Amino acid sequence: MDNVQAFELYSESGRRDLIDPFGRAITYLRVSVTDRCDFRCVYCMAENMSFLPKAEILSLEELDRMCSAFVARGVRKLRLTGGEPLVRRGIMTLVNSLSRHLRSGELDELTLTTNGSQLAKYAAELSAAGIRRINVSLDTLDAEKFRTITRWGALDQVLAGVDAAQAAGLKIKINTVALKGVNDNEFPRLLEWAHGRGMDLTLIEVMPLGEIGEAGRLEQYLPLSMVRARLAERFSLDDIDYQTGGPARYVRVAETGGRLGFITPLTHNFCESCNRVRVTCTGTLYMCLGQDDAADLRKPLRASEANGPLFTAIDEAILRKPKGHDFIIDRRHRRPALARHMSVTGG
Ligand SMILES: C[S@@+](CC[C@H](N)C(=O)[O-])C[C@H]1O[C@@H](n2cnc3c(N)ncnc32)[C@H](O)[C@@H]1O
Ligand code: SF4
């Protein structure tokens, strides 16, 4: 108990904030609302995935209660992810309900990361609910390559989703996973396309999460230091201080005027300033994307209608948040560093 009290910090409103053992305030929660997806991206999932039975998945009401508990404890930014968040049945009920925290001022931002396939259907509603920015994952502008990477996806549908989101006034950041020999010749084109439409672009290094079938990680892994050096031969990249509360380092591209981000978990350790935790759709809280340690929040959530047990479970877990991850991909580490897929924690 002494230990617990050592890290308690009260905000001006008297609320007990979530502070980890390294003094980092936890203000950002990412929630995976489903493990299911309408795509099967080669770096994220195996083609034949088995998904969780419904009884294990938090209901929309339980997800709302859990998110709201974190908001009550100082979380200012909430990102819905998955699997594909927009394939969760009733997703707009959850979004509309959570948007009350935006109106009350307790939450600075409610956002989501999506593959874009359902955006044409939901963009206007998302915007009406107070969502201002979203991340759309898109690894190529080549329709055939898109099908190969996503296995099941259709590029046209995603591009129509991007159009709809922009028409609804949503700001978009495009996330692109850098895949060696697959999309590495396309970055200039993607950059010009994204910046030409007023969207930031962030490149992401592939992370060793989950068994993915035939494609080995070493074959996919492309260090972004190399990508940056190659882009710098063609564009002027100026380091800028822009921060989104995330792990990306940004440059301004002089020729396009747009921002380009690099997320480099393997070549650059971004853990020191980590302010986030992740919850899966079963209510499992992961304190670090790159570690296995987790806490079960579903049990306290279902055991009592009062939030006391839930808060206790959250407090105990935050005190175990590790300093950082230790991903490695090299010839001796071809196996996944962690058994769980990115679609479990949502990236
Ligand atoms: C797991 S997805 C969930 C949200 C949504 N389905 C989407 O694709 O945006 C979140 C992000 O994780 C990325 N991702 C998935 N597996 C990854 C891996 N092994 N390494 C790096 N990024 C990965 C995806 O490209 C996507 O940008
Ligand atoms: S990256 Fe997103 S869209 Fe692709 S399989 Fe994973 S969860 Fe689905």
Give a written overview of the molecule.
Helix 5 packs parallel to helix 7 (155-167). This protein starts with a helix and ends with a helix. It has a twelve-stranded mixed β-sheet. Strands 1-2 form a two-stranded antiparallel ribbon. 30% of the residues lie in helices and 18% in strands. It has 13 helices and 14 strands. Strand 5 (109-114), helix 5 (119-128) and strand 6 (133-137) form a beta-alpha-beta unit. The protein is globular and about 55 Å long. It is of the alpha/beta class and 347 residues long. The structure holds S-adenosylmethionine and iron/sulfur cluster. The site of iron/sulfur cluster has 12 residues, from loops.
Question: Could you outline the blueprint of secondary structure elements for this entry?
Answer:
Layout: H1 2-6, E1 9-10, E2 16-17, E3 28-32, H2 60-72, E4 77-81, H3 91-98, H4 100-103, E5 109-114, H5 119-128, E6 133-137, H6 143-150, H7 155-167, E7 171-178, H8 187-196, E8 200-205, H9 217-220, H10 224-232, E9 237-239, E10 249-253, E11 259-263, E12 276-279, E13 284-286, E14 294-296, H11 298-303, H12 308-318, H13 342-345
Parallel strand pairs: 3-4, 3-12, 4-5, 5-6, 6-7, 7-8, 8-11
Antiparallel strand pairs: 1-2, 9-10, 10-11, 12-13, 13-14
Bound molecules: S-adenosylmethionine and iron/sulfur cluster (SF4).
The site of S-adenosylmethionine has 20 residues, from strand 5, strand 7 and helix 13.
A few lines on this structure:
With 347 residues, this protein is α/β, with parallel strands linked by helices.
